[in-house]
Design brief:
The protein has 137 residues and is mostly beta strands. It has one helix spanning 3-20; strands at residues 36-37, 41-47, 53-54, 58-61, 70-78, 83-84, 91-92, 94-95, 104-115, 121-123, 127-134.
């Protein structure tokens, strides 16, 4: 290959790279901020056969990073009989099955893993979940 031909080939290659933006550093994705939760506790209570009283769903708020976000509620500790009602949502309540006619208290701690579209992950603060059912005097 002659020098002239080599020079033209390299010039064409560099021109093509400049047009496509290759070799240009990509802009860094904004950092995923630590997610927030609407409450760090969620409670469910029933006295005898009265209708249960319970808190509104816990909501995770994600900011920063690259939208959209995905959510994954995970049990950290406590009763394995408690689960997140919407395990892949930004908002969830919790559920369990309680035996009728018995005083029962169950607790567990959950947290939500938020992942942005760039694959960056961050945990929301932990939420303590309590189910309490009272029977008797």
């Amino acid at each position: 290959m002659t020098r002239t031909r080599l020079f033209r080939t390299l010039a064409a290659l560099f021109a093509a790279l400049a047009v496509t933006g290759a070799g240009t550093p990509a802009a860094a994705a904004p950092p995923l901020d630590p997610p927030a939760v609407s409450s760090t506790s969620w409670n469910w209570y029933r006295h005898f056969s009265d209708p249960p009283q319970y808190d509104p769903p816990v909501v995770v708020t994600a900011t920063g990073g690259v939208a959209p976000y995905t959510y994954s509620w995970q049990r950290v500790s406590g009763s394995s009989l408690i689960s997140a009602s919407n395990a892949t949502g930004a908002s969830t309540s919790f559920s369990t099955s309680l035996p009728a006619g018995r005083t029962t208290i169950r607790t567990a701690v959950f947290r939500c893993l938020v992942t942005d579209a760039a694959g960056i992950m961050a945990y929301a603060p932990e939420v303590t979940v309590t189910f309490e059912q009272e029977w008797g005097d």
